[in-house]
Amino acid sequence: MSDFDELDPRDAARLREAVQALPREVEPAQDLWPGIRAEIALRPAQGHGGPGRGAGRWGGYRWLAAAAALVLITATTTWTLARRSDPAGGATLGTEFASYERSAADLEASLQRHRAGLDPNTLAVLERTLRTIDGAIAEARVALAERPSDPAIQAFVASAYRQKIDFLRRANDVASAIGP
Amino acid sequence: MPPAPSPSLADVRAAQSGDAEAFGRVYRAHVGRVHALALRLTADRARAEELVQDAFVRAWEKLESFRGESSFQTWLHRLTVNCFLVGDRSRRRREGRVEMYDELPESPVDHDGEGLGREGRMDLEAAISRLAPGARTAFVLHEIEGYSHEEIAAMSGVAAATIRAQLFRARKKLLEVLDR
Q1: Which residue blocks in A44-92 are alpha helix, DSSP H?
Q2: HSE (CB half, 13 Å, CA atoms) of B96?
Q3: What is the Cα–Cα distance from B137 to B25, expressed in whole angstroms?
Q4: Angle at A27 between CA B92 and CA B36, to 5 degrees
Q5: Please, what sign has the CA dihedral across residues B25, A43, A168, A93?
Q6: Is A5 touching B (CB cutoff 8 A)?
Q7: Any CB–CB contact under 8 A between A45 and chain B?
Q8: CA distance A124 to chain B (A)
Q9: Is B65 in the A-facing interface, judged by CB distances under 8 Å?
Q10: Are residues B137 and B76 in the same domain?
């Protein structure tokens, strides 16, 4: 298996011995399984029809995957359409965005109260989806700061906020239905 | 550290049928070895954890292709290596690095303090992490994982002669460390 042939035999033996003394297992510093489990819940697997097949175990947050996909598709579509159209100017955008942020903060606070009742995997997917949406909003806000009068970017930011609020509303509905 | 639970082929088969809990047991049984491999290939804790997650998610997606012709561990390790090589190629393209894989400078990653090294003493593990990426990959795959030069060449898209040269360089460097 190993070929230390070009080395001095004593050197080869020393190196081989050192290699064999290396630990065969190194546990990660944190448990990676919750993240993996949340991830595989979103992905189809070959041959077994995807994780949704397994009774209700995954069913609780399949809607989250669908919501996440919807967010991305809708945001992209909005971006594309906005580039073709010319929405109204951004005079009231600051107020509009502030209103979205207040609504989102209220909904997040409400969701926070239901956290304890949520399955950890559901929670992981939910948080990841929110991070995705927040990332999209943050990137769009940076772009908007550079080009504040660009109607496409204005429309994209507004759409991302609306998607976040819609997602949080649905998350709250589910959490309040199953939570304490 | 308690020994990892014995990998069960029954769990693998159950996971192939879509049982995510069984796949969780497969994860528990194998994560230590996969993480050790990931840590040696990447020489970076965060990237190693990402690689472990990617590998297990990919394994879930590809479980159907495991036919039992090799051990599950062999199958999983090869999949992990492929994830690493694909990700590494993408990363190097993103970073605009040249493809002269074997001529990159040595890794600046410092493993002192907690982690691979011990109390500032350069051990073999830390020395492997300091090898140039190509040499490190060749050494880990050949000397620790047992792949042949030809297998590594086929997986990495690097000529077998280059792999031999990288191995030679890696062994020389590591022997220097052992001699200190």
Answers
A1: 62-84
A2: 0
A3: 29
A4: 45
A5: positive
A6: no
A7: yes
A8: 14
A9: yes
A10: no
Check whether residue B79 and residue B6 sit in a common domain.
yes
Residue A86 has pLDDT above 60, yes or no: no
B89 and B123 inside one domain: no
Per-residue model confidence (pLDDT) at position A49 = 47
Residue range of the domain that includes B73: 1-97
Instruction: Test A48 with B62 for CB contact under 8 angstroms.
Output: no
Q: Which residue of A has its CA nearest to B55?
A: A36
| Residues of chain A contacting B65 with CB distance shorter than 8 Å | 46
A57-67 average pLDDT score: 45
For residue A180, is pLDDT > 80? Answer: no
Final residue of a structural domain among B97, B127, B156: B97
Distance CA A27, CA B30 (A): 10
Residue A136's alpha-carbon distances to A70, A72, B121, in angstroms, are: 14, 9, 45
Please give the average per-residue pLDDT across B57-64, as a whole number: 93
Unique residue bearing structure tokens 């011990």: B118
* Lowest-confidence pick of A32-46, A96-110, A139-153, B34-48: A32-46
Nearest to B71, CA basis, from B146, B163, B160, B154: B146
Q: How far is A61 from chain B (nearest CA, A)?
A: 14
Domain count for chain B = 2
Q: What is the largest CA-CA distance in chain B?
A: 53
Nearest CA in chain A to B59: A45
A61 part of contact set with chain B, CB < 8 Å? no
Q: Count chain A–chain B contacts defined by CB atoms under 8 A.
A: 115
Span B110-165, pLDDT tens digits: 444 333 334 333 588 999 999 999 999 999 999 999 999 999 999 988 899 999 99
For residue A150, the model assigns a pLDDT of: 79
